[in-house]
């Protein structure tokens, strides 16, 4: 048996997790009141705030959340069953430092995240839109990266990963051109041991595609 809500099919387990956790742990971006979200009040504590954009089905995200209890970890994703699955996975790992938002990351960052407040942003394996005519749909574009940079606090980190060579080159070019960001490495970052292998990354290995990580730090202009 499965459920269909807003055109998105959920399993019984996902629906159960949604019903159990959404009211406390989740919010719709479009339904947020005007102005910045009071994340400290939502989490019930002051802690470094990390935003993950595009958490997918949550397998990797849940592990990252559980491994970093010192962070206030926020995941924004448009796909409702994916968020439900993430909530279910986080519960199974006894992770309590997660909050989730359903909607567009640009709207969230523009209207509801104060400048200079994020300790980090993670974007792992975003949709590559591999056809050249679709490259303009890719998330990592100059305007978006500038928006991200303004929301990072000085010293905060933007961490990107992709298994598409062309997209990796685009990410490197776009982020390198942003004056508020500085590459922590000359080009690619070493793959961190703490980042779990995603299903997309495993598929890339099987298809002989190399994954690239990028880590850029927010600088403070003088």
Automatic annotation (TrEMBL):
Its EC number is 2.1.1.33. Pfam families: Methyltransf_4. It comes from the Bacteria. The keyword Transferase applies. It catalyses: guanosine(46) in tRNA + S-adenosyl-L-methionine = N(7)-methylguanosine(46) in tRNA + S-adenosyl-L-homocysteine. PROSITE patterns: SAM_MT_TRMB (PS51625). Substrate binds at residues 131, 163, 198-201. This is tRNA (guanine-N(7)-)-methyltransferase. It comes from Saccharothrix tamanrassetensis.
């Amino acid at each position: 048996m499965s459920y269909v809500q807003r055109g998105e099919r959920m399993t019984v387990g996902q629906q159960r997790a949604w019903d159990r956790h959404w009211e406390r742990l989740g919010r719709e971006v479009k339904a947020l009141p005007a102005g910045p979200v009071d994340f400290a009040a939502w989490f019930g504590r002051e802690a470094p705030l990390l935003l993950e954009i595009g958490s997918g089905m949550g397998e990797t995200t849940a592990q990252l959340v559980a491994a970093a209890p010192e962070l206030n970890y926020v995941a924004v994703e448009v796909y409702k069953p994916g968020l439900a699955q993430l909530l279910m996975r986080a519960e199974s790992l006894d992770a309590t430092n997660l909050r989730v938002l359903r909607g567009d990351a640009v709207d969230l960052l523009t209207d509801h995240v104060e400048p200079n407040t994020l300790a980090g942003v993670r974007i792992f394996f975003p949709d590559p839109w591999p056809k050249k005519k679709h490259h303009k749909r890719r998330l990592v574009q100059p305007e978006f990266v500038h928006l991200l940079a303004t929301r990072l606090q000085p010293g905060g980190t933007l961490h990107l990963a992709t298994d598409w060579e062309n997209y990796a080159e685009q990410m490197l070019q776009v982020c390198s051109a942003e004056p508020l960001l500085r590459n922590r490495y000359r080009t690619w970052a070493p793959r961190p041991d703490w980042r779990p292998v995603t299903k997309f990354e495993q598929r890339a290995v099987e298809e002989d595609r190399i994954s690239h990580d990028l880590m850029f730090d927010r600088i403070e202009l003088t």
